[in-house]
TrEMBL record:
Residue ranges of domain Nudix hydrolase in the record: 39-180
Organism: Breznakibacter xylanolyticus
Any GO BP: NAD+ catabolic process
Pfam families, sorted: NUDIX
Protein name per the record: Mutator protein MutT
Cofactor: Mg(2+)
Keywords: Hydrolase, Magnesium, Metal-binding
Amino acid sequence: MTHPGKVLHYCPKCGSREFPFDGHKSFRCRQCDFHFFINTAAAIAAVIENDRGEILLTRRAFAPNQGMLDLPGGFVDPLESAEEALRREIDEELHLEVTQSQYLISFPNEYVFSNFTVYTTDLGFVVRVKDFSHITACDDISGYLFVAPGEIDYTQICAPSIERIIRYYCACRSHDAINQ
């Protein structure tokens, strides 16, 4: 019931109720011919390790999935690059300064907010920060913890895309450790 095809009923340009969904990914207004596509939104997720090799996980302060574990990150703002969003989100959520980032992998996600599905492409990055001396839970996180890769409780991870990013990172990390 949260799919845009079930939620959107009026043309956002002229207000007409003649705004049929094509059943796949777009609407076209019969009154003004406005064509609206359901596109994905970009979001970023940061995999950050401390000196002990533990991964930094955050706890979500709000719905969806309040209280569950997540990676630091969030939506890319309009006219913002993924790298800019990465620096901004990590500063907003944790007061950490990014010194280095490298793209890792992306996965699709369905983010349901206010009973509306927003399709996202979650871009995973491996991130290094200056230090952890000023780390503070802020913005839309209620806390944080460092967890050894082998001790992550994946049933507590907030979204399948975030779980897949973490599992991919851990698999790459294990593979790299074996080949060293």
